[in-house]
Amino acid sequence: MDPTAPAGLREDRRMILRLDPRYPLVWRTPDTIQLGIDRPLAIVPGVTAPLESVIAALRVGIPRSGALMLGRQSGATDAATAALLSALAPALVGLDTQPAEPGTNTAPLTATWFGSRRATPVRRGARPVVCVDGAGATADRIRHLLVDLGITVATPGQLPDLAVIVDHFVLAPERHGHWLRRDVPHLPVLFSDTEVRVGPLVEPGAGPCLTCLDLEHVDHDPAWPAIASQLLHRSAPTETPRLGIEVAATAAGIVHERVFASSNEFAAASLAIDAEALTVRRRAHRPHERCGCRFLPESVIVLAGNAAGFRPRTS
User: Which candidate in 1, 95, 121, 195 could, as Cys together with 262 as Cys, close a disulfide (CB 3.0–4.6 Å)?
Assistant: First the structure.
């Protein structure tokens, strides 16, 4: 038994260790890695080039003895490799074990900054038009639910009353900027590694926009721009049929209230649905002082065209 092995991984030195594939590995800085996005499992500074080869092997799977040997061959000491394995222990799984469930967070609901508010009524006759900007099973479920609720799903090139943007992890700025510039309310639906975030339902010119949320994220974590750029083409493991049904119903309900009741209680709030427990937390948001979204000049409001294309995803 190796006393330097991380707790819980000492029983069998032949066990294949692997980084849990549900949690993205991203670089916070040129020598600091992070495992997990919503609730990081590990942040490891001081990663050298020799240790990068060990990390690459752990993404596929390697025994502890093999990791030590690979580290030596690459120029790392056994102590450095052992320290790396210890730091990564919360994100390591044995191939003969089931990955640990992501942690849940059942914090009480927070109040919204604006509270429930009246929104501009939709004046397009009996059937409002909504664009679902995204691809995949959940986007399709939202489209079907909207039709069932008496809402017309927009065709390409048609200016909708509202847009729902479905994607994984993060949205490229041009994706939500497309709708902001056209003065179209838009609702993001983002699958991440341990939760799905729905909202806020952005009302252009009134309340926070999605850039405000990104700036808020940067305030809490200055490394967020570097992390977000690495997540643009990643697929989240949380878009499962069970969670997709829950998310689609939630999004369709929010849209229904907005277009028929002209009510938007999510203008400054979002919902985070836990991927395992399905518990829901409500988060409050507010306009960010460094964002000019509430003061867009009329010259940037342009005629509607095709929605910004969504990108292909990789695992």
Answer: 121
